[in-house]
Amino acid sequence: MKGDGGAGQFQGVTPWLQTAWDMRAAGNFIGGGTGTGLLFLAAIAALAGGGSPLLVVVGLIAVAGGLFSVFLEIGRPFRSLNTFLGGRRSWMTREAYVAMALFPLGLASLVWPAATPFLLLLVLPYIYCQARMLKEAKGIPAWREPAIIPLIMASALAEGAGLFALLTAILGRRLPPWALLLLLLALGLRAGVWLVYRRRLASGGAPTRVVPKLARFTPPFLFAGHAVPLFLLVVAAVLPSLLAPLAALAGVVVLLAGWAMKAFIITRIALNQGFAIPVTPVRGKRRKGVDAAGTAPGWHQ
User: Where are the beta strands (DSSP E) in the chain?
Assistant: First the structure.
């Protein structure tokens, strides 16, 4: 057992940063969230009469890249097939099941565009499975926080909308009003859920060492990842001739902010629970009221 910040008698007892999931695991949440978010908008665009095979292809590549990233993390890659055996209790298995349906449907939509809207039936379950994978990691306080579910889902929508704005500019198309509105809503939703998530962790929902990290990350995340793209989109609304480049730039910023947030959650604030002593025993004959109060090193006391 290794400590991470404990001192003296609490060495190896205070919460320490987990190392089982690194940037390769974060890559699964990055690729999966961005890809499904883009596929969500691709399906809506198809319903609105503005679909494009490029949107579906990029979305599928992002999801596949995320899955391949986590595959690289497995010490014995061929054991990854065991993932399909835990459907009744594993959200990772359920994610794999949804992926097995998502890719055939996505590829079919490239041949039969009328199938594209049906992606809506799979992209939300996929990203929900990813969010629940974090939520059910009970030993990591920053992951088990219930707000992680809407945070991951809101970020996926924001990332997908940001990438949609970028690809729309690359295709030489005008960003549809509904896509601009969706990007603004996703941006506001992600910022709002993040504030709730941070407040709940800082108020005692996580080890004390998580709090200063949240305090340092939040201002640049909200300013660069939300205020800046919001400003760019407002300017684009005032100057329609600049809508495409400004929306594309705002989309890139929103996208990168979502990636940074996921990497931060997975690799920077993922401290284990640590150990606690409910009651401190006192040597000698036990008498009522003699036992001292317990302690939880590394937590708010």
Answer: 277-280, 292-295
